[in-house]
Write a structure and sequence with these properties.
- By secondary structure, the chain is an alpha+beta fold.
- The protein is about 20% helix and about 25% strand.
- Strands 1, 2, 3, 4 and 5 form a 5-stranded antiparallel sheet that branches.
- Strand 3 and strand 4 form a beta hairpin.
- The protein is flat, with a radius of gyration of 34 Å.
């Protein structure tokens, strides 16, 4: 077995270190949602395709419209990248909207990307309630000094009820 010289040991250590650093910088890529295998949603033709042909070619939609019933279908997919300990970042998103008319034929096909999305800020407003807020001391000492109900023998714990 050949002996390793200090120079070859250092070179081997440097190569292993560079390989480890290179793999640490590679992102973890995640693909979620609709995966087109043979046919893309954009291959659907308005006026010729129907709900049955869309299901046969693309499968069931990711979601349907909430307010329009079953007349709008959405095929949604996105790609995320995650570097080491950071949160995943969406790098690509595709939303294909297929609208059907009353005869269940495709009326229109529209594809939206990541740039078409909008960031929505949550409203932190609260509806005020009537009345006043009690402090901690008012809550703890609220019943001190108030009159109590008159005590009778029937109300004492451990007593037998008269039959």
């Amino acid at each position: 077995m050949p002996r390793l010289t200090p120079f070859s040991t250092a070179r081997l250590l440097a190569l292993v270190s560079m390989a480890a650093l290179a793999t640490a910088c590679a992102p973890t890529i995640g693909v979620n949602g609709f995966q087109n295998v043979d046919v893309k949603p954009t291959d659907i033709v308005a006026g010729t395709d129907t709900k049955e042909t869309v299901i046969a070619r693309l499968g069931s939609p990711s979601t349907t419209s909430t307010f329009e019933g079953d007349s709008i279908w959405y095929y949604i997919s996105q790609t995320t990248e995650k570097y080491t300990y950071n949160l995943p970042q969406v790098t690509q998103r595709s939303v294909t909207e297929i609208v059907f008319n009353d005869a269940e034929q495709v009326a229109s096909v529209r594809t939206l990307g990541l740039e078409d999305g909008q960031d929505l800020d949550m409203q932190r407003r609260e509806t005020p309630t009537r009345g006043r807020e009690l402090t901690i001391m008012e809550q703890l000492l609220g019943n001190v000094g108030r009159g109590q109900l008159p005590q009778t023998d029937e109300n004492q714990p451990g007593q037998r009820r008269p039959d």
